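Hi R.,

Here's the chain you asked about this morning:
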Amino acid sequence: MLIAVGVAIPCQLLMGYTTNFNVYLFAYCLAFGVVGGVTYMVPIHHTWGWFPNHAGLTSGFIIGSVGLGSIVFDQIAIMLCNPLNTQSVDGVFPPEVTQNVPKFNKVVCWMMIPMLLLVIILVFPAPLKEEDENSVITPEE
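And here is the predicted structure, written out as tokens:
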């Protein structure tokens, strides 16, 4: 999870301050590729250790929660980037909308910091059983 924090925060800040599209694209792909993979698999793996008989239920809860987060952040993005609901013309938004995107990235960065710190505090692996000290935690069959 520290990798996610170490990648997400600098990339999100870079996306908020850069004016170069290629730099923005690189930071976007790196941040959401690495962070997306880590934030899915680490909590899912750890819940398998804590709830080995309910691996499907806990995995579904985590994946559903990530989907719910997308719904919430979508509303925040609309509110910050396009508060007047300005329509695009031929797929291009006017400058008053596009100039709000860097501000949105900065706000999301500051929102992510406490959430990621909370994740670092709360997500930890289940204790190993004595007979499994050298094995990998997997759900019981």
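One quick note: The CA atoms of residues 16 and 102 lie 4 Å apart.

Cheers,
M.
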